[in-house]
Amino acid sequence: MNAPGAQRPPAAPAFAPYGAGGGIVVTAGVAALDPTTLRPLHPGFEEQAAWVLDRLDAVLDASGAGRRGLLRVECFLAERRWFGAWNACFARHFGAEAPARTTLVCELPVAGLLIEVQATAALAAAPAPDVPPTRRRDRSS
């Protein structure tokens, strides 16, 4: 129970972790927040970034796209000083198979939240029988 006059944390919004249509999956924002309290799960940037990337993998797997279908990751950093650490976390997580990425620096909606990501992915389509399966970045041909 809250003390008289104490502010309650805002209620967690109800939204789907992803939406899909036309062979494309778009994720909701993925942030290391406790859904009940809307407080960060971890105080440090690297911990939040690792949690966010692991959760992004789980959402993509649940959507059916998986990491193989990942086309683009959009990242929102609370401060520019986290950019180098974000590059290192991203490289560790994706390695040579990194998708396209955009990183923005902006004020995030919850105090202590340092990073949030969202992504766009393609649902897998069966390759043509005479084409060996590969990870193609150019989806236009």
Automatic annotation (TrEMBL):
<dbReference type="Pfam" id="PF01042">
    <property type="entry name" value="Ribonuc_L-PSP"/>
</dbReference>
<comment type="similarity">
    <text>Belongs to the RutC family.</text>
</comment>
<keyword id="KW-0378">Hydrolase</keyword>
<dbReference type="GO" id="GO:0016787">
    <property type="term" value="F:hydrolase activity"/>
</dbReference>
<protein>
    <submittedName>
        <fullName>RidA family protein</fullName>
        <ecNumber>3.5.-.-</ecNumber>
    </submittedName>
</protein>
<dbReference type="InterPro" id="IPR035959">
    <property type="entry name" value="RutC-like_sf"/>
</dbReference>
<dbReference type="InterPro" id="IPR006175">
    <property type="entry name" value="YjgF/YER057c/UK114"/>
</dbReference>
